[in-house]
Amino acid sequence: MVESADPEVSSSQPEETSPSLRKADLAKEAVRLRYERGMAAKDVKEELKLTYASEVSRLIDFARQNKLFHIEYSDLPPEGTRNGTLEEEIMSCFKVPDVIVVDCEYNPEASDLAMIRAEDDRVHQVLGKELAKKLMKLLAVTKPPLVSVGGGRGAFYTARSMEEMVVRMDYQDMLNLVDSKILSISGRMNTPVWDTSGREKHLSLDADDVASLLAGALNVRQENIFRLNLPLVMGGDETPEKHLAGHDHFLAPKVWDKNTPEVGLVGIGALDGGHRLNRVDSDFQLTPIQEEVRQLLEAVNKAKDELGVSPVGDVCNRLVFLDPTVYGKKLDKSIVDDLKQKIATVNARLMCVSLDELNQIKTLAVVAGGKRYKTHAIYYFLKKRHPAIDILCTDSKTAEALLEMA
Fold first, then answer.
1. CATH number corresponding to 84-405
2. If we measure between CA atoms, which residue out of 194, 191, 185, 291 comes closest to residue 244?
3. What is the mean pLDDT of the chain?
4. Short-list 227, 239, 206, CA closest to 350
């Protein structure tokens, strides 16, 4: 729930948004439309007669930094229970410096895809809350000059929990990182999620929005939030390489090498189940690469018939071939070569960080759970250590499945 810090300000929608409306009032209205009504940034832009959707994020940042509102989360999950035994076993088996394993139960009768997605969403809420505690302590001590964030449920719920901790526990003085910078490292996708009843709901899961949430928790200055403000999929003849060639954005290779983030927060996924690319026929944002994605999905399904699991994963939206020899299985070379070629074709159109760039981050925190689809992807990245994972946050069922694979 969003509450205005000024009781005199009405929460009702104005009949018309005037250019002369004070910035504070405009910022409060942007907050109300975004969080109370759940409107997408592009729709808020139209409602407020703004020029660019990116202005919505700036207005919300202005409102947050000037304490024009506060958010009360009524749907946050209860405290999770850490499983110390599994944490030690994962650390020992995979040589990960820091591991968080939270006890979570899965419904064995859940078979409907929407219900499975909702269950995974609940798991990521619990994981995000536990990882938030770890990152609050880490950032308070290290005060890193540059923090990078990806999108997805795990990153979103981590950042949201951190903001909630600031509101409820007064971490503001301890995490007054006004000189730090927050960097979004993946383009916009507007991915839907599902509530516990299986109904679709809107949450701002894109990296740009996660960056804004994290900035609010860390009290970072508005000018120190570096959003991509670009779609994940580049249209027409545009490619990330072409777009970044003439810019000094952090994701430009030469700039990244000189400004590598000290801390990164990302998730791991698998091209299976509810992955965004599986909506290629209904998602207009995937139109520029529709045919390429269809061909990739066809190759993935062919490989799944032999492996039983998807051979393609992603970290921070970068697609990766999950070499099945890592977990003791094998695919015909022709299938492997075809998959790699199709993955490379799609990756060439995605605006997101590369694995080599992720590997340069000093402390990479990964939040990923959901044993139904992601176990093989998580296992692959743990074994390959590229990028190297410094903090892993997962659930107990996924941890047990990882140990069984080892």
1. 3.40.50.1360
2. 185
3. 82
4. 239
The residue written with tokens 């996708």 in the block is: 189
Instruction: Name the H helices within 3-112.
Output: 23-31, 41-47, 54-65, 84-94
More confident residue, 5 or 43: 43
Residue 105: CB partners within 8 Å, gap ≥ 6? Answer: 397
Q: Exposed/middle/buried for 353, CB within 10 Å: 0-12, 13-18, 19+?
A: buried
pLDDT tens-digit readout, 314-344: 999 999 999 999 988 999 999 999 999 999 9
Q: Are 375 and 398 in contact (CB under 8 A)?
A: yes
Nearby residues of 385 by Cβ (< 8 Å), 6 or more positions away = 95
CA gap 126, 117 in Å, rounded: 15
The H or E element containing residue 201 is strand 200-201
In sequence order, which ranges of 143-186 are alpha helices (DSSP H)? Answer: 153-169
Is the pLDDT reported for residue 61 higher than 60?
Answer: yes
Q: How confident is the model at residue 96 (pLDDT cuts 50, 70, 90)?
A: very high
CB atoms within 10 A of CB 358: 24
* Residues of each domain in the chain carrying CATH 3.40.50.1360: 84-405
| Burial track 283-309 (b if 16+ CB lie within 10 A, e otherwise) | bebbebbeebbebbbebbeebeeebeb
Quick one: which of 64, 52, 68, 259 has its CA closest to 148? 259
Question: 3-state class of 131 per DSSP?
Answer: helix
Answer yes or no: are the C-beta atoms of 111 and 147 closer than 8 Å.
no
